[in-house]
Specification:
Blueprint: H1 28-34, E1 41-45, H2 52-66, E2 71-76, H3 117-127, E3 132-136, H4 137-147, E4 155-159, H5 172-183, E5 187-192, E6 209-210
Parallel strand pairs: 1-5, 1-6, 2-3, 2-4, 4-5
């Protein structure tokens, strides 16, 4: 015999305002983030699939065009997430520019190892005129180890899935970000669905604006 299990159903009034785009094609969350685009250190905390990637694109384009930064480096935890930062025709929805990543600079799709050819590619990018590169956390860590913190001066570093970074001194990405903040020559945008980790390690603490 199967016993019936009570359940509760709750319906909420929905206005649609959380998904309605503004004149630049931004959702309300993206618009709130864009209003803080001038911040040097910014943490975007928003649920999965809420548009954090596009929010970063809007910010990065402004920093490259209007805030004097040379390049933007997008750092993701694994190769599959790199596709979240593929080309986006933002102008189609009202923004003043499109998001473009040259295929050779999406290192998530490139052959080679994180500590070999991909680091050389990142070094070549830093010396060139192209504006946007996407790589994994691992590639970025090895690149900072080999090239040094100063090689990234005057650039935007965007870290996706920021909860992977902890305050543990053995967390290399956290150590590198601390060095960047100490040098104070880059802009950093961190993105995460949750600022808390599933283990006992404390998350990295830094002087970011939370939105």
């Amino acid at each position: 015999m199967i016993n019936s299990i009570p359940s509760v159903s709750v319906a909420y009034v929905q206005s649609g305002s959380s998904t309605k785009a503004n004149a630049l094609g931004m959702s309300p969350m993206q618009e709130r983030v864009y209003e803080r685009r001038g911040e040097q250190y910014l943490l975007i905390k928003s649920p999965p699939a809420s548009g954090k990637s596009c929010a970063l694109m809007f910010i990065a384009l402004d920093k490259l065009q209007n805030q004097g930064l040379k390049q933007a480096i997008i750092v993701v935890p694994e190769k599959s997430i790199g596709s979240s930062f593929n080309d986006e025709l933002l102008s189609q929805f009202g923004f003043w520019a499109d998001w473009r990543v040259e295929p050779k600079w999406n290192l998530c799709n490139a052959p080679g190892t994180d500590n070999g050819g991909k680091v050389k590619s990142l070094g070549a990018f830093l010396l060139g005129d192209d504006k946007v590169l996407v790589c994994t956390h691992a590639t970025f860590r090895f690149a900072v180890d080999q090239l040094g913190v100063a090689a990234f001066d005057d650039r935007l570093i965007a870290v996706d899935e920021f909860h992977h970074v902890s305050a543990n001194p053995d967390n290399k990405l956290g150590v590198h970000l601390g060095q960047f903040i100490g040098r104070d020559k880059v802009h950093i945008v961190a993105m995460t669905g949750s600022y808390f980790r599933g283990d006992a390690e404390p998350p990295m603490s830094w002087k970011a604006k939370f939105w």
